[in-house]
Design a protein that fits this description.
Blueprint: H1 4-16, H2 20-34, H3 38-56, H4 60-65, H5 70-76, H6 104-109, E1 115-116, H7 118-125, H8 129-142, E2 146-150, E3 162-165
Antiparallel strand pairs: 1-3, 2-3
Helix pairs in contact: 1-2, 3-5, 7-8
Length: 166
């Protein structure tokens, strides 16, 4: 969630200062406020969620239904099965509950301000990769989102993700 009051305060300070160093610092702060890092929230979740969930009787399935990834649940200490494709086979009784359908409008509403990738939209919305790609492409065509090309800092396996900006 973006703190609009903080955005306004930073923008006001940007207008008032002529110090180039201060302006660069404020620009960085503005980017961070407009597009908060999901990593900081994940770190806090991993640190505190399991203990809190145990106290309140909350299961991993409840978090999963709200879009928390299995990998994040595992890091937090929740028992999450290996799933398909990793040697584990699910029987009928072990099948995970179906995810609630996420509409294109829900996906569109999850597009963050600032720079992002399609995977960021998937994580924020809980929607499918296909729907997120389609919605982002529509927003590019409407002129609401700009495509910047492949992430120049990508170093992992596979192709670099495409960076977009709202």
């Amino acid at each position: 969630m973006v703190d609009e009051q903080r955005v306004q305060d930073i923008e006001q300070r940007l207008q008032e200062t002529e110090d180039q160093i201060e302006r660069v610092k404020l620009q960085q702060e503005l980017q961070e406020v407009r597009s908060p890092s999901l990593e900081q929230f994940e770190e806090r979740f991993v640190t505190h969620a399991k203990e809190w969930a145990d106290r309140h009787g909350i299961t991993a399935a409840a978090f999963r239904a709200e879009g928390v990834a299995d990998a994040t649940l595992r890091k937090a200490g929740f028992p999450v099965g290996a799933g398909r494709g990793r040697g584990g086979r699910r029987t009928r009784k072990q099948t995970a509950p179906r995810k609630a359908r996420v509409s294109a409008e829900d996906v569109r509403a999850a597009i963050p301000s600032g720079t992002f990738t399609v995977n960021d939209v998937v994580e924020r919305s809980g929607g499918s990769l296909a729907v997120a790609r389609r919605v982002v492409r529509e927003e590019v065509e409407k002129g609401n989102v700009t495509e910047h090309g492949p992430d120049q800092h990508h170093s992992g396996p596979g192709r670099a993700p495409i960076i977009f900006e709202r």
